[in-house]
Amino acid sequence: MTELIPGVGAGSLLHAQLLADDRSTRIGAIYRLDYNEAIVLTHDKWKFDAGGIPQHSFLLATAQDINTPQVDDDEVLLLRVEGTAPLSMETDLHAVREESLRSALSSNNDPLPSAVLDVEMDPFTRNRVSFTGLRCRILGTFYEDDVDGRKVLEFGADVDNFYATSTYRVLKPVGDGLSTIASYLKPTGREQERVRIGAVRYSATRRRAKTSKQADAAVEVNIHDFIGNKTALLGMTRMGKSNTAKTIIARTFVISERQRAVSGKPIGQLIFDPQGEYANANTQDGTEIAAIGANHVSIYKFGADGSQPHVKPLNINFFSENQIDAVQGLISEALSGEGSGYVKDFAGTSYSDVAGDRSATTHAQRARMVLYGALMRAGFSVPANFSARINMAGSLQATITNDLGRNPFTQAGRTPNIVSVGASDLEAVVDKIIELREANSQDAADFTKDVRWKSVEPIFTTQSGGRSVRGWRNLNPLRPFHSPLTQNDPAIEIYDELVDGRIVIVDLHVGAEAVTRAMSEDITRRLLSRQTEVFTSGQEPPHIQVMLEEAHNLFSSDRYKDDLDVWVKLAKEASKLNLGMTYATQEVSGVAHQVKANTANWVVAHLNNTTEVNELAKFYDFGSFKDAIIASEDRGYVRLKTLSSPYIVPVQIDRYDVELVNEARAAAGDAPLTPGRDS
Description:
Elements: H1 13-19, E1 24-33, E2 37-43, H2 44-49, E3 58-63, E4 75-85, H3 90-107, H4 113-117, H5 123-129, E5 131-147, E6 150-156, E7 168-173, H6 175-182, E8 194-200, H7 207-211, E9 218-222, E10 230-234, H8 241-261, E11 268-273, E12 297-301, E13 311-313, H9 324-335, H10 341-347, H11 358-377, E14 387-391, H12 394-404, E15 409-411, E16 418-422, H13 423-438, H14 442-447, H15 451-461, E17 463-464, E18 467-468, H16 490-499, E19 503-507, H17 513-536, E20 544-548, H18 566-573, E21 579-585, H19 593-597, E22 601-604, H20 610-616, H21 626-631, E23 637-641, E24 649-653, H22 658-667
Parallel strand pairs: 10-21, 10-22, 11-19, 11-20, 12-13, 12-19, 20-21
Antiparallel strand pairs: 1-2, 1-7, 2-5, 3-4, 3-7, 4-5, 5-6, 8-9, 8-24, 14-16, 15-16, 17-18, 22-23, 23-24
């Protein structure tokens, strides 16, 4: 092969990686060339010997001039086959062919098609009509460069010069040569860690690729491209999006564990799982993310009973002081449909204790007592031995005790005014305080004067400004969120586990949609808040990856206008907060343009309509693949564009299986699973 490229020595990088006999095979020559497009002249025999030339195949064009070895030809053009092209003599040959058929028909007594169309051509004519043209897009130029004293393969996404067409020879890359092209990573300044994600696949029909042993040219990506960046998984349901996501998650876990092993910071991964396909095994992938191991994967779900240490309740305890922020967020969402002013007051007020501020803490405790009473009225299960701790003047305690005919207070502090009220007395105490205030008791008025109390009282009494409101009745749909057994706020536990580098799956396939939506929003809101706290303190936030399904419901164009929306905030602020985001959807047009414009990695499977592929065609050169994306419905067959890859590569994504699970387990120092037994 080296005689075809005299300006490139036998030991050169271009030859060794792209042009050697075992890395590419000659299929033709350049027929016409400009800066953007090349027409390649090829022959049926050459195509057959090369194992076929499917649409979107990569080709290489290299200049050569036997008589001028000093010519500057240390460059190789990378082409992609887009379609066919007519040749100058083709019309004449068609005319000759047509005339011969007419003659055969008129001179033959048997007018059957086989007798006319199968007429034997002479070898000269057959050879002439076997030449065809391929229309190719020029993707750019491979060339050698010196970096730090060593030769490296570089790629430029254009052409800086071209010669007469007769100077070029065209080759089809195969085997390791094709893998080199499909796995090429341009320098980005980011760390590089190559991992296999699949094999090159040009077409749905793979017979020739398999028979010519060209069906397993590895495609490697830089896994760091996915960490801290946005990744789009686009395609119809059951087209392999979740399989791709699992592969990325497992590969990221391996990198995280390697970083941990050298005292680096691990990478947490948060997966919102609306169908339960990441937490549970399924027939499509054969195994689940949870198989990586209970020591590394936590699952949060409604109804968890504690029988498995790594499966934890997603419910929160509405009566727990340390979970009041989560409670407030969910109640604010439940009240949002009611237009009364108390709703806004409730959402905008804090009910947490304030360190160093005794007055604020006192009023927060009193307001929480009213809220607990509203929860009881709404039928929430009360934790065993529950009581509310408050600061109440002795005179008011005495009045309430006298009116109720019993003492509902138990001293809970060093002074008599610090008391607790048990669950059995709590509603009665709140009712009595309100009754005394309405009867002009100064003690009761002082006790209830703060905005915290005033914003909660309508929820308890269902009265606001002299009119009836739904109040506690709005809390009924929130009962599935509640568990009296939960000790800590799940959102805080989840964040702590993410910082520790664990994979956290929030299993949302059990529970009403409104409930799961509100819970996932609360978890994300808390994640953003904690990352922002770290960022604004001058420290680097921990790296955390977030996986989202049904992205068209989260990032619609109308929704993207709301800066207060938690998903919009995630999309806008993720990068600076070291939050990578992988989003999956079958509706490309349903995701706001701003989100797509800031997406670094694209994995595109089958889409079934022109609306979606036309939207996709606005980015990179996915428009070249429009027809194939609609036509090919093979699971896992995608078009891949990553941050480090300068061009789109058609790929058959590897199946997420026990082998990959064991690779992840090995990185963490765990024993492998045995296929068919442990999995």
